[in-house]
Amino acid sequence: MFLLSILSMSKITFFIVLLIFILIDLYAFQSFRVLFSSKIIRYVYWFISIVFYIIFLHFSFTFSPTNIKTFYFQFVIGFFALLYVPKLVISIPLLLEDIYRFFHFTFSKVFSSNSVSLERKKVVSMLALGIASIPFLGILYGITKGKYNFKLITQKLKFKDLPSNFNGFRILQLSDFHVGSFDNIDKVEKAIDFINSQKADLVVFTGDFVNLIAEEMLPHIDLFSKINSPNGVFSILGNHDYGTYAYGNDQEKLQKNRELLLEINKKLSYDLLLNENRKITKGNQHINIIGVENWGKAPFPQVGDLAKASEGISNEEFNVLLSHDPTHFDEKVKNFHKRIQLTLSGHTHGMQFGIEIPGFIKFSPSQFIYKKWAGLYKEKDKYLYVNRGFGYNAFPGRVGIWPEITVIELQSESQA
Ligand SMILES: [Fe+2]
To answer: Which of 93, 116, 144 is the last residue of a domain?
Structure first.
């Protein structure tokens, strides 16, 4: 929603942003000018940039937070990323080279001849273009393929207090559908077939059905109702499901949005948990699935009520909590007086961008916002798993942080 707040700024802000784009363009153009003598390449460079300026201006002057045209919005974000991330990468070495030249000129009595300087500029430009091709190709892949590059992640978690009948119980977690973003339903359908082929004991969905409004789900009810398990599908709401990004403070519309989403959950045969819990029974034993409404730090809704959601549960039971926003874990869950052995969250999407090589690198700009942004965490002998999300939002792609289907197998320490 950071993006939405930027887009809600004054039109003057847009002109400042546009000016920054033009400056990046002028800088990156230096490398094209040095390396390519063909006028066509130069014309194409500026033609694409001018098309972007026109689209950007049109978008900014027609943008309304209460009437976002999702695909146009995503197109502008995607076009921007594809064009300006690589250009920014090109500009950095050229800027450094200019700084070097400036100091060399100022402090050296013997200034290099123009030919040497031009030669160096060519080498720097070639290097800059080579480096910039990496984010360009990465973003191009992320927009065309990466956003549907679903990954199955399996986790086996051991617990001291897991009821023995649940040893080997498999929970499949999905999060952040953001159905309004999908532009290739065949790929989503294949992913849903794959989900069902996992034959998990239970499926849970940890919030953000939609981007803006409940209606986004309507064309997809048949498809998403195919997701099933022997113990059903439990769901919760995420910050995007409350309709506030579309309807602001209009209580009547917010209420209608909520009612429609509740009705949709019924049609999906998902058991939507709104600060409540359910028992899953195996033989004479059970575990509890607790679901809270969204609890996040401002500006996100803080309507999750763990005390209410866990009513009727004693401290000796085995509890799995569904809570959309992982900040809830640090702020409330890990110190809650009733023991929550496992919390399942989503929300961060790992910013849909980063690098992950298991055992070596785990990086995403998401980590500068969320302490716990993807994967497994354990604190105070309680687990938190943060799913990277099934869909995508705002940026119409995923680079390095792929869409995720998680299967968590509960294991009893004594029986493993
Ligand atoms: Fe989300």
So the answer is: 144
Cα 351 to averaged position of ligand 1 atoms, centre (Å): 10
Q: Is the entire prediction scored with pTM above 0.85? A: yes
End-to-end CA distance of the chain: 43
Q: How far is the CA of 208 from the centre of ligand 1 (A)?
A: 5
CA distance 4 to 68: 10
- Cα Rg, the chain, nearest whole Å: 25
* For range 188-201, the mean pLDDT: 98
Residue 42: closest CA among 26, 55, 29, 60: 29
DSSP for 61-109, please give it: HH--TTS--HHHHHHHHHHHHHHHHHHHHHHHHHHHHHHHHHHHHHH-S
User: Can you read off the two tokens belonging to residue 224?
Assistant: 């998403």
Instruction: Please check the confidence at residue 3 and state whether its pLDDT lies above 60.
Output: no
| C-alpha of residue 204 to centroid of ligand 1, in Å | 15
Note whether 99 and 190 are same-domain residues: no
Same domain, 110 and 177: no
Residue 366 CA, ligand 1 centroid: distance in Å = 13
Q: How far is the CA of 136 from the centre of ligand 1 (A)?
A: 25
- Residues 272, 249: one domain? yes
Order of strands across the sheet that contains 375-379: 276-282, 285-291, 319-322, 342-345, 382-386, 375-379
- Kindly tell me if the per-residue pLDDT of 18 is higher than 60: yes
Give the pLDDT of residue 60.
82
pLDDT at 31: 86
**What is the Cα–Cα distance from 30 to 225, expressed in whole angstroms?**
54
